[in-house]
Amino acid sequence: MLNKKVKAGVLCAMDSEASVLLEKLENHVVEKHGGIDCHCGDFGGTPVAIIRCGIGKVFAAASTQLLIDFYHPEVILNSGIGGGLADDLSIGDIIVGERLVMHDFDLTPLGYARGCLAGAADHGKPTYFQPDKAVLDKLFQAAEKFAGEGHRLRRGCIASGDIFVSDGEKRRALNREFQADVAEMEGAAVAQVATAAGVSFVVLRAVSDLASGSAATYESFEHEIGVFSSKIAVEFCRNL
């Protein structure tokens, strides 16, 4: 349906992040485009299209463009979980991304700063994508309804890369180099594609692990924290 228009396009990487969204989706129908399932419906009357895109920047970028081409969303929300990089973060804390960077984009042999995209006007600093403040504020307000004991909330920097960060040295390096709060694998790609298309975007991450040591902590909290982040996403969409 090329002329369909929704208020929000929502992207989640994994089933654990998308499960609550799909359970709460009203008037739920599934449309398939290029082999990708698009879940269409509404949250409290707000029309949305949801894609479980898969893990990584390429999957996220392709699904973002699909949402734009077929559903013309006013805003794209990427919701999910991530690894905490800042020392003061705990599992369950919430980061609303006020800027996003690709930490694994590396043209340093050509004189670029790490994270600086090709074609950037200033080669000496990373390329950060920033959402529209009004939309960012709406997401923050939605998250405030769920923040409380065990779930602290703040705006911060989200660093994306096709790497599962699981060692302390890498964690400290990303925090130091990019002043990043959370590491994950999709958000900056969503931001880049949406920005190029002139579509508003926001990215939400709930901390599922502290990006250090084994993946056991991540596996223990993946579903619980994914469900939590999805509840915030539903609240955001309902109030657009």
Describe the structure.
With 240 residues, this protein is α/β, with parallel strands linked by helices. Helices cover 34% and strands 28% of the residues. The chain has six helices and nine strands. Strands 5-8-7-6-9 form a five-stranded mixed barrel, surrounded by five helices. The radius of gyration is 17 Å and the shape is globular. It starts with 7 loop residues before the first strand and ends with a helix.
Protein traits:
single chain; 240 residues; alpha/beta; five-stranded mixed beta barrel; 6 helices
Work out the helix count.
6
The helix/strand order is EHEEEHEEHEHEHEH
Structure summary, number of beta strands: 9
Amount of beta strand: 25-35%
Are there runs of 5+ residues with pLDDT below 50, and where? none
Largest beta sheet: what is the strand line-up? 5-8-7-6-9
Rg computed from alpha carbons, rounded to a whole number of angstroms = 17 Å
Largest sheet: 5 strands, mixed, barrel
Gross geometry: globular
Helix content: 25-40%
**Oligomer, anyone?**
single chain
What structural class do helix, strand and pairing data support?
Answer: alpha/beta
N→C terminal distance: 23 Å
> What is the average of the pLDDT values?
93
